[in-house]
Amino acid sequence: MPEQLWFTEILNHLFATPVTSLLRTLHIEPKYPAAPISNSFSMEVLVFAFLLVLFLLLRSRLSVDRPGALQHAFEGVEGFIQGQSEEIIGHHSEGYTAFLAVLALFILFCNLIGIVPGFESPTAVPIVPLGCAICAFIYYQSQGFKHGGISYLKHFLGPMPALAPLMLPIEIVSHLARVLSLTIRLFANMFAGDMVTLVFFSLVPIGFPIPFLGLHIGVSLLQTYIFVLLTTVYLQGAVSEEH
Questions:
Q1: CA-wise closest residue to 5 among 53, 44, 54
Q2: How confident is the model at residue 197, as a pLDDT?
Q3: Domain residues for 32?
Q4: Which residues of the chain, if any, have pLDDT below 50?
Q5: What pLDDT was estimated at residue 243?
Q6: 115 in the same domain as 84
Q7: Residues 61, 71: contact at Cβ < 8 Å?
């Protein structure tokens, strides 16, 4: 039986049987049928629930005349991402802001939840950054086809027809490598940050680890920014008019 966080234990206690049945229906045999829900998945569920409550709270308090602190905070995030998107993608970037903002908030809270005692960062487990990277990959590819139609495939063939047989496999490998790059960058940095924090908390549990918590927060913010920035750049390449 794997070591479980308290929230994971609750989820497994409540949902282990239906989750195991669902996995077996999909011909997936869980390693631990009594505890099929992992710590990383339970932390994702917790972050999702927290963001959902936050969004509902924000929706109920939206005001043009008297915006509150929560509304100002979300407007700041939206404005920052919208401004960055407009610089990179261009004037038609407004439609991508919602996806980029939600992606940023999800990754940020997944990164930061690890500083709360009793929790851990799900982005320090490879499968979670991989899932985020696959979502970003599918999104910008689908937007490329939505924007350019079948002519989007010309993007993979290079500027000259004679180079198409050479450029096609290079472009395919290049795009797939983006998924690997996004995954490894986020996972490696968050895993290292979690390990440093845990080591110093185990050695000196009072006072001294505080600077490393600040470092963890800084790394969390930076890695969220880099992930969203690269996704925006990939979007720009997919929907730009030049190709």
A1: 44
A2: 72
A3: 1-37
A4: 243
A5: 42
A6: yes
A7: yes
Same-domain pairing of 3 and 70: no
Angle between helices 210-239 and 97-112 (to 10 degrees): 160
Q: DSSP readout, 162-222?
A: GGHHHHHHHHHHHHHHHHHHHHHHHHHHHHHHHHHHHHHHHH--SSTTHHHHHHHHHHHHH
Query: How far is residue 111's CA from residue 223's CA, in Å, rounded to a whole number?
Result: 9
Quote the CA–CA distance of 23 and 14 in Å, as a whole number: 16
My answer on whether 16 and 85 are in the same domain is no
Question: What per-residue confidence (pLDDT) applies to 103?
Answer: 96
Residue type, 180: L
Q: Cα–chain-centroid distance for residue 141?
A: 17
Give the separation between CA 243 and CA 237, rounded to whole angstroms: 8
- Verify that 194 and 78 share a domain, yes or no: yes
- The SS3 call for residue 141 is helix
Cβ-contact 167, 161 below 8 angstroms: no
* Amino acid making up residue 197: T
Q: How many domains does the chain have?
A: 2
Residue type at 149 in one-letter notation: G
15 and 96 part of one domain: no
Tell me the C-alpha distance between 13 and 19, whole Å: 11
- pTM of the entire predicted model: 0.91
Q: Give per-residue burial for 167-182: e unless 16+ CB within 10 Å, then b.
A: beeebeeebeebbeeb
What's residue 242's pLDDT?
Answer: 53
pLDDT in tens, 90-133: 888 889 999 999 999 999 999 999 888 889 999 999 999 999 99
Nearest alpha carbon to residue 104 among 206, 224, 241: 224
